[in-house]
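User: Please run a holo structure prediction.
Assistant: Happy to. Please share the sequence and the ligand.
User: Here you go; the ligand is zinc ion.
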Amino acid sequence: MPLSPEEVVHVATLARLGLSDAERRRIGADLDLILEHISKLQRADISEVPETAQVGNLVNVWRDDEPAPSLRQAQALAEAPNTDGQYFKVGAIQE
Amino acid sequence: MTTQAVGGRVAAGYEAVIGLEVHAQLLTRSKMFCACSAAYAQAPPNGNTCPVCLGMPGVLPVINREAVAMTVRTALALNCEIPAFTKFDRKNYFYPDLPKGYQISQYDLPLSLNGNLEFVVDGERTRCGITRVHLEEDTGTMQHAGHVLQEATSSLVDLNRAGVPLMEIVGEPDLRSADAAREYLVRLRQILMYIGVNDGNLEQGSLRCDANVSVRRPGAAELGTKVEVKNMNSFRAVHRAIGFELERQVGVLEQGGTLVQETRGWVETRGATISQRSKEMAHDYRYFPEPDLPPLQLGRDLVEEIRAAIPELPQARAARFSEQYGLSAYDASVLTATRPEADAYEALVSAGVTAKVAANWQMGDVAALANEHRLALADSGLGVAGLAALLKLLETGAINGPTTKDLLAELYVGGGDAAAVVSERGLGQVSDESALAAIVDEVIAASPKACDDFRGGKTQALGSLVGQVMKATGGRADAALVNSLLRDRLSG
Amino acid sequence: MTTAGLTAAEMAAALRRGDVTPRQLLDDARAQVTRLDRGLNAFLAHTDELADRQALRAAEMLSADAGAAGPLCGIPVALKDVLCVEGYPTTAGSRILDGFCPPYTATAVRRLLDAGAVPVGKTNCDEFAMGSSTENSAFGPVGNPWDVERVPGGSSGGSAASVGACMVPISYGSDTGGSIRQPASLCGVVGFKPTYGRVSRYGLIAFASSLDQVGPFARSVEDAAAAYVAVAGHDPSDSTSLPDQLDDPVAVLQRGVNGMRLGVPREYLGEGLEPGVRERVTEAIAVLEGLGATVQEVSLPSTDLGLSTYYIIAPAECSSNLARYDGIRFGRRVERPTVADTMMSTRSAGFGNEVKRRVMLGTYALSSGYYDAYYRRAQKVRTLIAREFDAVFETVDALVCPTSPKVAFTQGAIQDPIEMYLNDALTIPVNLAGLPGISVPCGFSAGLPVGLQVIAPRLCDARVFQVAAAYEQATEWHAHRAPMVAA
Ligand SMILES: [Mg+2]
Ligand SMILES: [Zn+2]
């Protein structure tokens, strides 16, 4: 089933993607196309088949609880578009 | 309001249904997935961060083994099952204090399940189920220009706390009053501190509590509309917020209104919960298995190894104290309130101090001094050993009660060798019968009035006579001996 | 006379003979880049100071103990711009990272630097490695050395072109669904995708974490093997990095394929394959048979589900991996009064179409109500696909098949996303199962390179090199150079 315009807006909001109307229409249509192609997955017989999330067959990969030096404040902030020299700065939280 | 909650219980005709969700920072040395220090408060803003906890491109998490062990320890202390297989998942949402745009947490296969916590609420044994204890990472912190979030035009983000190991302890909605909720939290906190996984600081938020509160008609099968209460950072706040919320909900229903499922924040200054509904977009966390972290299979051996290392828990220890040391249930629970206090008590007893004497002094003068100087006995100059030595002087009769009290106060902070002080200042107790007899005779001769009163049956007159003897001996006389000497003579 | 056309092995020998210095090799590489890159756009940045420093370091290592110095010591290399190099711009081909200089270096790069390799620059690629043509780079498309009007493949198109145009003998890329093998095929070079977990992903800008692997491009199988060994091995900073002992691919390059059982998966030679590709690959398989390998047809029935599975799993993971690009801690930012609007505007201005499309697709596939139908189902089909590979590897030692169904196509020729995605239909299953795969030149169709893909079981990376080397030694295709190189 194709995505409704409302669904496209909802997904874009979840993904924090500001889309123009044109983009919404185009991407919405692309998604319909792709989901249509992907629908062949529904035909696969996966009864009794376990899920594969990773292919490395690893378990219990962990490190000892040893602290190491952090970045300096200036290094941590160096790449940020907007800071006050100590903190990352952002706008109002509430609309 | 007609629906006055009594003892944190909801008004007659309604039943309170409360479940607590507790987040506890773990006392590891490093963060959950990177090597930054878990003690984030010391560093300057954002000075306790690295590319991993800043969520920079291309960096990867590595699990802190000790954080897993501490979570298992907690789960076992709360009687949880430890599944053979567990994994981490990504909880996806956008917020400035969440660097990666997702929190590494656990969704469908947590580290532990199905535990419980037992405690007593006004004399009644109560059991609250523990749904799960899982492991995740903490977020950063934010400061809002303008004191209320809603009014802030800009905010500052500090990521020093981001990535600190965080344990989420989800309780079943088994609690039926604000009192029960508070007691559950008190006992839970006590256990977390006993097993050394959390410092129990509600004010600073290393231990956080949210409450799901609803009311229903007793026996009603379905739950009432659930409200999530946040921003409670003290036991008192938890108790008051839940009490308020119960009253508010009953009030709404009593007036024929309907409740909305929402999140409300406790505002201490207003003594009320305020709706936190905002225009913020609806959440859909889109959990999925964290592809950067292989799953965990904690073998039986590892789990048993961790179980074996769990110290005796407060309730068991209290029971043993009253059993082994003949203490009242109350005394036993006071003496086992914290692990250092319980350890100190057992050290005193094993040093040879009589159980009852150790209990009285530790709960009395020592507690008062510890409180006065904000200094626990173990950390004081006198220390547990010093106190034991002092109390043994008392028990062997080398000094008397009043002298013990004075010396304790004098030596508590700075410390010192009690025996040495006693000998150099000659504070030793006077129990030489002949010496005391002489003083007694002088006192009797000097106060015929009191003697007659005593003989006439005014037994309290004896007190003033004893007092005079004490005065004459600079407070060092063996009070018991003085008593009997006076009685012999006056009844002679 | 320039050293630009030499293989790394030839350069290494010349260095040890004292015929050239790392400095000369670097200068020749730069000259070739200057001469050809205006037309190709293979490089996004030149890491000059780093290259100069490494050339000196390599010279010292060689004079100190030429024997101890590894095969990449003093060799110019190029790095796909998804590999972080401390202090140098790393963009992943995206506007949103324009100007970003990471304060850390990828483990794979760290190993190259320690081996004395000389990185000349960062190569162009599809934005966040999402694409099959390198047309999705925010910094312009890359030309194919064999025909600059055509695409080099993708997403590692710049790395493939830089080797195809003899700018460097060795480059590195990342392969999530074919992003090394397919461009190698289209540019007429060797491209290798290791067993998942063989090369650390630490410092590799993530596209799809459970599929991404770093691997080399080269103009000979021998160089590719040496380039792989230089970066492979366990890394405690990557929890998915494999601790298993590495079997040395260089040691097996001369073993040949006599007696080896090779499988040809029927589904990989089905419709959708260009006739020229089918012919070259069929001939290549005959060559291997002539070398003593026994060839049998095998079946991987779920092959046609690979693409669908991939286009759920990869977008789902990328929708989460790309959430960190919110304009707060690094990268570009479009300021708006509220945080939510700032994030929205930053991401819509910073991401290109293909990235937006996949982030939307992945977000949708994970959203409540659709998870079971899409993501969970895809994970199960992924199991089916891996099991089918396990099954055929019971009867054959390795698989041989085409790398790409097409030769290089003209830029702008493919607009339909599905048609574009189909370019990876034969490489994607290998990533889904975490297997090692290599593409080696096997001739030309209409003057454009065709690649033969060799696939082996997990951890049998050395075996794909063994088969590819045997084929290379029996043919001359690897010796062909793009016309622009000579001109
Ligand atoms: Mg949580
Ligand atoms: Zn960190």
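The pocket of zinc ion (ligand 2) is lined by residues B 31, 34, 36, 49-50, 52-53, 163 (CB under 6 Å).
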